Amino acid sequence: MTTTVQIFWGSVVLGLCSVIHITTIVWSVSLVKLLGPKLARYSARLRLGVLLGKAFGFVIISHAIQIWILAFSFVIIKAIPTLGEAVYFSLTTYSTLGYGDIILDVDHRVYGAMASITGLLNIGLSTAFLAGLLGKLMRWDIV
Q1: pTM to 2 decimals?
Q2: Residue 97's CATH number
Q3: Whose CB among 29, 64, 83, 108 lies 3.0–4.6 Å from 104's, allowing a Cys bridge?
Q4: Cβ burial 124-133 (10 Å sphere, 16+ → b, else e)
């Protein structure tokens, strides 16, 4: 794969993953707004735990979906031979941990870097979202 093709497909996957992540966050906000009033009769700690836990669960599911998308894409483009190795590589690349025990060949390295940018952006978005949500929930005097 040429560098241009890697950047193109990496950008497509980054966009797809980001749309999934943003959609998940929007659903999570909607759920928190829906559940908040229904939990009014419970203790503040329980409300905080349930609402933050639900949002956190949505974020985790979103990241898992994205890691699977990346894993399948690495197998499809024949960058990594097995799905198990692709999941492992996707997880370590997406998290930007990158152990380096699986290395992509030159024809796929830029695509791999795009996978890590995807994780960096979406993990950053998750962190900002959860921190903002926690601040908002605490301003609602539920703790």
Answers
A1: 0.89
A2: 1.10.287
A3: 108
A4: ebbeebbeeb
